[in-house]
Design brief:
Blueprint lengths: L4 E7 H7 L31 H9 L9 E4 L3 H8 L7 E8 L8 E5 H4 L11 E5 L10 E8 L1
Antiparallel strand pairs: 1-3, 2-5, 3-6, 4-5
């Protein structure tokens, strides 16, 4: 991973509900089998594995649950997600120090390196997964930026 920081954009409601915590949608091992009818041709691997979890996580931006948390190295993309593409008046962007990830047991999966046809390649999405498949350690966040649409 080239970037020194990653960004996570969240709406104001999510920020308040999770109190700034980076939580995944589920807390199970980060592996999946290809789901019939959901994995596009060329975007699946045989069996239950991490690669299929990456595909499932980002597939069609459909919010399929995994133990990963989406981030991007592009601040403007994080702001877009924080304000729901300008539909929300404001949101928050968490700034994440990538140099702290490995020492804290957080694995980073670069979507464009794994998925043949990413749903949103311009996001340059990086999925972060905690060692225990739960919330990411709060100490990886070095700043919270409030943004307005």
């Amino acid at each position: 991973m080239k970037s020194r920081v990653l960004y996570r954009g969240v709406n104001a409601e999510m920020h308040a509900a999770f109190r700034g915590e980076l939580r995944p949608k589920e807390t199970k091992p980060f592996v999946k089998s290809p789901e019939y009818g959901r994995a596009e041709w060329g975007n699946a691997f045989w069996g239950e594995n991490v690669e299929n979890a990456v595909i499932e996580h980002q597939q069609h931006q459909a919010s399929y649950p995994t133990s990963g948390v989406s981030t991007t190295p592009i601040l403007e993309r994080a702001k877009f997600y924080a304000t729901n593409g300008g539909k929300s008046s404001h949101g928050y962007v968490y700034v994440i120090d990538t140099e702290a990830l490995a020492s804290l047991g957080v694995t980073a999966y670069v979507v464009n390196d794994i998925v043949r046809m990413p749903s949103i390649p311009e996001d340059e999405e990086v999925i972060l997964v905690a060692q225990d498949f739960g919330s990411l350690p709060k100490v990886i966040m070095v700043e919270t930026i409030e943004c307005r649409a």
